[in-house]
Design goal:
Blueprint: E1 77-82, E2 88-90, E3 93-102, E4 108-115, E5 118-123, E6 128-135, E7 138-148, E8 153-155, E9 159-164, E10 176-181, E11 187-189, E12 192-201, E13 207-214, E14 217-222, E15 227-234, E16 237-247, E17 252-254, E18 258-263, E19 279-282, E20 311-312, E21 321-339, E22 364-370, E23 385-393, E24 400-419, E25 426-427, E26 429-433
Parallel strand pairs: 2-9, 11-18
Antiparallel strand pairs: 1-3, 3-6, 4-5, 4-7, 7-8, 7-9, 10-12, 12-15, 13-14, 13-16, 16-17, 16-18, 19-21, 20-25, 21-24, 21-26, 22-23, 22-24
Amino acid sequence: YCQDTTALTCTATGAGWVTVPNGSITANNLVWRTITFPAVTTDRIRVQITATPDGYSRLAEIEAYSSISSAVNTPPTVTLTSPVTGAAYTAPATITLTADASDPDGTVSKVEFYNGATLLGTATTAPYGYSWTNVSAGNYTLTAKAYDNQGATTISTAAVVTVTVAVIVTANIPPTVNLTAPVTGSTYTAPAIIPLTATAADSDGTVSKVEFYNGVTLLGTATVAPYSYSWSGVAAGSYTLTAKAYDNQGAVSTSVAATVTVAAATARSNVALQTNGGVATASATYSASYPASAVNDGERKGAIWGSGGGWYNGRKNTFPEWVQVTFNGQKSIDEVDLFSIQDSFATPSIPTLTTTFTKYGVTAFAVQYCQDTTALTCTATGAGWVTVPNGSIAANNLVWRTITFPAVTTDRIRVQITATPDGYSRLAEIEAYTP
């Protein structure tokens, strides 16, 4: 405005002009912009434009009012009373928003409720409220915005609330478990080795472990399938064996029990041994340095490999391969022991029941006996041969593998090999024992 009422110094270049209080505006984006200030007296005003979006200056209208008696509009007040910051809900949630609003120099025309910049709903009469329904999981910033009768607005302080996913609690279903071996009625000879195996599953979670018991005595634990434990050195007696499965929530189930008997050891004879009249033959032999006769010479280690220390077929992936031992007449047997070639074949050690191999052993095989005592039908092609109970073995990695079974009577046995790590068949020793 021109402060000099004589207008002598208010020039086009700006001399004599004074900016009204509150009259310096930046970052304006309002089409209608009102500037109010304590009254001044002048005979002229001007708008000095310093910026536009495209560099061109345009105006539709300029108004100047002298009704100083009209009071400046006071914006309304508004408080979001519900919910409060920190409130928590479960999806799908219903959130009730309420607000108090008033206008000291007029009336409240409406109150709007927002989530961030998103309008949720509007209330035009007190008490001001809105029910926000079916709210999904997440974090929300809620505000109330009040309008007065002259268009002034005020936004409340925000309330931050959380909606979480509903947790559905269901009853835990216990696991299932079955003791698959041994079967009730199995018999062994002391000191016995009893392989225990079980299957277990959990329909609403996972199986954390399977324990094997003799009565109430824990024998061993398996944490991964296939669940198994080898109980060795078992003395003579009767035993009640069970498997107990645990799930990931701690529920427990116990299998049906299996009762087995371990008989006291008696004098036993290895009827496959050469010195007891056993004669060994094979489906194929690489050379005289790897004879079939090496498998029943009484030497379990396979020592002096390549010089009579073990049998070797010399041909790759020609399964099944077999080694047969014919006894000195009909014999009753209930155990066959198989000895594979050790990884350190040049310097083998005396094997134990836990010695393992990775390279040259027999991984899959069947122990068979000639069931026809006339021996007329037990041929090299397999006719007439019967696999002994428990005699079909897969995934073997034990150098010394013992197979026990109810006694059978026969004059010969054979080991039919169906898999090895490298495709070649080798054996150090085969033993067959009388009960």
